[in-house]
Amino acid sequence: MTSGKSFNCLRQAALITVIAAVLFSVSPVLGLAFALGIVYRLLLAKPVAAAALPVPPAPLRELVIEIDAAKRERQVAEITETEDFQRLLRQAKQLRRNRER
Question: Looking at the predicted structure, is the pLDDT value of residue 73 above 80?
Fold first, then answer.
């Protein structure tokens, strides 16, 4: 039986994994930056003996994340094909052109 503290650590690890996967699906650079930030924070933490690490309960040992690429593409298209988004793109291009002058 795991303690409440151990279970909270597992929940945090699962949440970090999900966040990294979602960010990576949106932008590999963003996902990698997030993962590297977590690794950096872990390297700064005090080392923990392997025996001190909690063993996750059986259902949490494997986390499978499936991204529906077609659904993601539809959702992105719903946003990028709106007139408001197109207007913002035009404004951004105009601002870049003005900055280059």
Answer: yes
Within 8 A by CB and 6+ apart from 67, the residues are 21, 25
Return all residues near 72 (Cβ < 8 A) that are at least 6 apart. 25
Question: Residues 60, 54: contact at Cβ < 8 Å?
Answer: no
Rounded to a whole number, what is the largest CA-CA distance in the chain?
66
* Number of Cβ atoms within 10 Å of the Cβ of 44: 7
Residues 92, 101: Cα–Cα separation, whole Å: 15
The amino acid present at 82, given as its one-letter code, is T
Query: Residue 40: pLDDT above 80?
Result: no
The answer to pTM > 0.70 is no
